[in-house]
Design brief:
heterotrimer; A alpha+beta; B alpha+beta; C alpha+beta; A: alpha+beta; Uridine Diphospho-n-acetylenolpyruvylglucosamine Reductase, domain 2; Uridine Diphospho-n-acetylenolpyruvylglucosamine Reductase, domain 3; Enolase-like, domain 1; 3 domains; four-stranded antiparallel beta sheet; 14 strands; 33% helix; B: alpha+beta; Aldehyde Oxidoreductase, domain 4; five-stranded mixed beta sheet; 24 strands; binds flavin-adenine dinucleotide; binds FE2/S2 (inorganic) cluster
Chain lengths: 264, 688, 161
């Protein structure tokens, strides 16, 4: 790791000030993505600003059909929270399947969405649960927030405070884990809302995406059989030493059917 | 053999990604890493060769001027002409190419060393995890030209070895040179990234076998053509793996009148290959048992009966194979029957049907393996016992445990040989001052070699103690009997305990009861039959290992719990190879693409759902314990058993062979293609 | 330089370290607690697992200053968990690992034990499946995990009394 200055912000205002004063500063939440990157010297921030303990980024609250989760909430906390289990059990289940226990005890919702890893789990939930990302400056709808591989709409100095998820009628997430990294080789979040079905796929492509064809098929009849033979178009999906695009397309189809079967 | 020099730091040419090029010495690891970023190296890219096929291609880039065609050598064993004749008259012939893909050994403790140099005596003291101080001394001396006597090697706890820790590495030499230059101790602790890039790697073999059968399914001849990828340089064990270890048991457990093997060893721009758990023996066991299964299917033979018909029968022991190896003992048919019964082989059809009803492909795989163990590089094995003033018997040994539990097993052997409590015996391994002859850890030989020497030591101590005991008891030596740790005058109650006697004799060193246990112990042939049962999800290609039964003839078992642990570990390492592990270099850049645990799937907890291990000992006469060795047999059994199980599951789809590793992606593609799906692009081919 | 005040195995410690110091290096180098191991540089092996305020984390992937004001428990302090740093007796998980021969080279063992202890603190009666899931962040190259899983079951038994 290169030399850097560590600062723990005592308040949101202090975090904002530190970011403003040090243009090469980076936010640090659970560190499960940032610290490994720093250890491999792949990033060179002058400062890291620790926001993991900020009260402004904590808390879980369900009302008016939306579940709001603070950005600094760890994956383990999301997995275990009664409020989440009641409102959106599929979200708790998703969080319980991220990485491993040690990663879940440190990694945060805010860090995960801000990082927007194309194989991360939360982005699928963000899309399928029509989430809004609330920052210190504005509220951003999911579709505008996730702009591409490791890219978000966050501007410099912008901090994710919380994420609001629409509570669905029913939902499920199924993931086929990469055999080495544990991230999603393909993960599919299926949510049936009052106003329609949303199906979001992560891991298979260069970023999480909504799979409209599946949504349309399920809107007709919410049944795993409706998805029989359906797969996202492989041409836009990832191919690497681990798997071909066609395999990933197939997995997305299989995971979608399994998610639907789980809530049927 | 054409063997280019491997310089500790690359000169002019870098031959593989991961080869050290410069060293930075600093007061802290962080400072050294900061400084290393400032080192500027100008590289001019050369076209790499990373695979066997690339390296042997006409006009391929040449790694070393000494090795035209990138060929280190071409090796033969057995009778080529006899094989030709046997194939000419065969009723059936089966031919199969198998690849044992390149692996990274990955013991959990990365490599490390610390060296200091005493300017007065010119002696280097080197702390490093290794598989035996004697071997490391020789290897380091060869690498650095420092005479053996000036190398004091200290090995303490070793965080797993699996073969990769026996050679000397560039980092050892660099740290020694730096310590001498600076007059201060210098330490290097590798990272996991350095393990991936810089450790010697394993396997990387391509094995093509041909089996000639008569009309009744008897094997007439077996012929092999192997190609071994040595990596960029020949390690001391690289060529051994690709030649001797592939050919010594090339007929496995079968009575085959004619054997012939050819092996070529090839240089490529990849990390050098060395011994990795089994070092060629699991590979040949895998190839034989895959070929047997394949031939049985091809010619409509029941694979179990086919094996039984061709086993070397127990009555034929000792059995000399067609290429001269002598198997001293073994009862292969009894071991297989035992394994089949324990694995519920007879009831498999019902389990397959039940799985099919759930949409899963279930398969069962049998492997009757045999491997050569026991033989060591040193002419004999010695251990030394010393009675200390502390009231303990301390036994100095040369083998360095990397988790095998020698401290327990060797102490058990000495203590039970002497009839004294195990708490009175201490084992000191790898002491730099031990001054003993013997081999280190490797080839599953510690128990057969060093363990046997411990057994001899116990007898020696008793014989040496007898006259002193006679004096103490005022009796004639021949009137004494020794039992349960004490000499007793026959027919009387008068006795003196061994440790009481030792205490009486305490005084100037050496203590009169100090003794050397030694002997030359021959090769052994651990064997066994493993039965694996798998269930494949055809939708995702994911495999569950639902049941695994290992029945092993490892000879006499000294510590059952430790032996079982070795089988567990070995079998799961084999499972790692069968289902996911592979080192892949980019063919165009020579970069290692699987250089972290995020890209290199290691086996994890729960990989085998039901695991039964049973010894079926047929003691050997080649050492005083009757032990055959268990360190590597797990891999030799599990590679073929698991691979056969997967292919058994796939056989109904018309899939007869498939390359390792059986990743979900590869299995799904094979299944999808067999079911008629047109695939545009396949997953990465295995690399050897 | 950063000032870090934390509780390690029940004792208050105050360190002054470079800001970039990893918690594992602070434990090993500054405090001499070398039972916590480093087996990788990509947060995947779990050899470095310690408890932070009672929950298992990978100490190789935290800056020491992040632990300021927190309580750390390492393998060295586990045995005395009832009254930190006190007892010589083994913790039930250590006891079970010994009984079940759940370690060979021992390099992964401190991390495995801390991960297992972390699981049992939350779930005193885990199923085999839950144990396997809880050990996903810990690699072992020697044992094949069979005896490790048995040891966690045995530890659960010992802890239930
Ligand atoms: C071994 C391992 C396995 C993993 N497996 C999975 C998996 O299966 N699925 C999965 O989804 N993820 C996985 N992860 C990633 C994990 O979920 C991380 O926790 C997550 O990606 C980042 O969260 P963090 O809190 O650790 O963020 P950090 O690492 O602290 O930060 C990540 C990035 O986000 C920025 N950031 C953090 N918080 C905020 C904020 N509030 N506002 C704006 N920017 C912010 C930081 O500046 C940094 O650039 C794994 C990680 C590891 C180490
Ligand atoms: S050293 Fe921390 S996870 Fe490997
Ligand atoms: S016991 Fe050696 S790595 Fe687990």
């Amino acid at each position: 790791m290169r030399p850097l200055v560590y600062r723990r912000a005592a308040s949101l205002a202090e975090a904002e000030r530190l970011l403003a004063e040090h243009p090469a500063a980076t936010l640090l939440a659970g560190g499960m993505t940032l610290i490994p990157t720093l250890k491999l010297r792949l990033a060179r921030p002058s400062h890291v600003v620790d926001i993991a303990r900020l009260a402004e980024l904590r808390g879980i609250d369900g009302k008016d059909g939306r579940l709001t989760v603070g950005a600094a909430t760890t994956h383990a906390e999301v997995a275990g929270a009664v409020a989440v289990r009641r409102a959106i059990p599929a979200l708790a289940e998703l969080a319980a399947g991220i990485g491993d226990p040690q990663v879940r005890n440190a990694g945060t919702l805010g860090g995960s969405v801000a990082n927007n890893d194309p194989a991360a789990d939360y982005p699928a939930a963000v899309l399928a649960l029509d989430a809004t990302i609330e920052t210190n400056r504005r509220t951003i709808p999911a579709a505008e927030f996730l702009v591409g591989m490791f890219a978000t709409a966050l501007a410099p100095g912008e901090i994710v405070l919380r994420v609001g998820f629409a509570m669905p009628e029913r939902a499920a997430y199924r993931k086929f884990a990469h055999p080495a990294s544990g991230y999603a080789m393909a993960g599919v979040f299926v949510a049936e809302h009052r106003d329609g079905v949303r199906v979001a796929v992560t891991g298979a492509g260069p970023g999480a995406f909504r799979w409209r064809e599946a949504e349309a098929a399920l809107a007709k009849r919410f049944n795993a059989g409706s998805l029989a033979g359906l797969e996202p178009d492989a041409s836009g999906l990832n191919a690497d030493i681990h798997a071909s695009a066609e395999y990933r397309a197939n997995l997305a189809g299989v995971m979608a059917r399994r998610a639907v079967a789980a809530i049927q | 053999m054409r063997k280019p020099v491997w310089p500790p730091l690359a000169r002019e040419r870098v031959h593989f990604v991961g080869q050290p090029v410069a060293a930075v010495i600093a007061e802290s690891a962080a400072a050294a890493a900061d400084a290393a970023e400032l080192v500027q190296i100008e590289y001019r890219d050369l076209a790499p060769v990373t695979t066997l096929a690339d390296a042997l291609r006409e006009g391929a880039p040449q790694l070393h001027a000494e090795a035209p065609g990138n060929l280190a050598f071409d090796f033969e064993s057995g009778d080529a002409a006899a094989a030709e004749a046997a194939f000419a008259k065969a009723a059936h012939v089966s031919r199969l190419t198998l690849r044992s893909q390149r692996l990274v050994g990955n013991p959990m403790e990365p490599r490390a060393c610390a060296a200091s140099h005493d300017a007065g005596t010119a002696i280097y003291t080197i702390y490093t995890p290794t598989q035996g101080v004697n071997g490391m001394r020789g290897a380091l001396s060869a690498l650095t030209n420092v005479p053996r006597e000036r190398l004091r090697i200290v090995a303490q706890d070793v965080g797993g070895s699996f073969g990769i820790r026996s050679p000397a590495y560039p980092e050892h030499a660099v740290v020694m040179a730096a310590a001498k230059r600076l007059g201060r101790p210098v330490k290097w602790v590798g990272t996991r990234s350095e393990v991936f890039l810089g450790d010697n790697q394993g396997r990387a073999l391509e094995l093509t076998g041909e089996l000639a059968l008569d009309a009744t399914g008897r094997i007439l001849a077996l012929r092999w053509d192997h190609v071994a990828n040595l990596g960029a340089y020949a390690t001391p064990f690289g060529a051994w793996v690709g030649t001797r270890n592939l050919t010594v048991t090339m007929g496995g457990v079968y009575r085959i009148p004619v054997l012939y093997g050819r092996a070529r060893c090839v240089y490529t721009n990849t990390a050098p290959v060395s011994a990795y758990r089994g070092a060629g023996r699991p590979d040949i066991a895998f190839a034989i048992e895959r070929l047997i299964e394949y031939a049985a299917a091809e010619h409509g033979l029941d694979p179990i009966e086919f094996r039984r018909r061709n086993f070397v029968p127990a009555e034929a022991m000792p059995y000399k194979t067609a290429n001269g190896t002598v198997y001293d003992s073994g009862d292969f048919a009894a071991v297989m029957d035992d394994a089949l019964a324990r694995a519920g082989h007879a009831g498999f059809a019902a389990r397959r049907a039940e799985a099919a009803a759930r949409g899963k492909l279930r398969g069962i795989g049998v492997a009757a393996y045999l491997e050569a163990a026991g033989a060591g590089a040193a002419p004999k094995d010695q251990v030394r016992g010393r009675f200390g003033a502390d009231g303990f018997l301390t036994v100095w040994t040369l083998t360095q445990s990397g988790g095998q539990g020698h401290e327990t097993t060797f102490a058990e052997i000495v203590a039970s040989g002497l009839g004294v409590p195990i708490e009175r015996v201490r084992i000191r391994a790898s002491d730099p001052e031990a001054d003993l002859v013997g081999s280190g850890v490797g080839g599953s030989r510690s128990l057969a070699g060093c363990g046997s020497a411990c057994r001899v030591l116990a007898d020696r101590i008793v014989e040496q103690a007898r006259p002193f005991a006679a004096e103490a008891l005022e009796a004639a030596p021949e009137d004494l009997e020794y039992a349960r740790g004490a000499f007793t005058i026959k027919g009387t109650g008068r006795a003196i305990g061994l440790f009481a006697l030792a205490e009486r004799l305490a005084g100037p060193t050496p203590h009169p009861l100090d003794a050397l246990g030694e002997g030359t112990f021959g090769a052994t042939f651990p064997n066994g039959c493993h039965v694996a049962e798998v269930e494949i999800d055809p939708d995702t290609g994911a495999t569950r290992i639902v049941r695994y039964t290992a029945v092993d003839d490892i000879g006499t078992v000294v510590s059952p719990a430790l032996a079982r642990g070795q089988v567990h570990g070995g079998v799961v390492q084999g499972a790692g190879q069968v289902f996911g592990e592979q080192a892949i270099y980019a063919p165009d850049s020579g970069q290692l693409l699987t250089a972290s645990f995020a890209d290199y799937p290691m086996p994890r907890a729960g990989i085998i759902e039901r695991f039964d291990v049973h010894p079926h000992p047929v003691p050997t006469g080649t050492n005083v314990l009757g032990a055959k060795g268990v360190g590597e047999s797990g891999c030799s059994g599990s590679l073929p058993a698991l691979a056969n199980a997967v292919l058994d599951a796939l056989r109904p789809l018309g899939i007869a062979t498939l390359d390792l590793p059986f990743t979900p992606a590869r299995l799904w593609e094979a299944i999808a293609a067999a079911r008629g799906r047109a695939l545009s692009r396949r997953a990465h081919a295995p690399q050897v | 330089m950063a000032k870090v005040a934390m509780t390690v195995n029940g004792k208050a410690v105050a360190l002054e370290l470079e800001d970039r110091t990893l918690l594992v290096d602070a434990l090993r180098d500054a405090l001499g607690l070398t039972g916590t191991h480093v087996g990788c540089d990509s947060t995947q092996c779990g050899c470095c697992t310690v408890h932070l305020d009672g929950r298992s984390v990978k100490s190789c992937s935290m800056l020491a200053p992040q632990a300021d004001g927190r309580a750390i428990l390492t393998i060295e302090g586990l045995a005395g968990i009832e009254g930190p740093g006190s007892g010589d007796a083994l913790h039930p998980v250590q006891q079970a690992f010994t009984e079940c021969h759940a370690l060979q080279c021992g390099f992964c063992t401190p991390g495995m034990i801390m991960a297992a202890a972390g699981l049992l603190a939350e779930n005193p009666a885990p199923t085999e499946e839950e144990i396997v899931h809880a050990l996903e962040g810990n690699l072992c190259r020697c044992t094949g995990y069979v005896n490790i899983v048995s040891a966690v079951q045995r530890a659960a038994e010992l802890m239930r009394g």
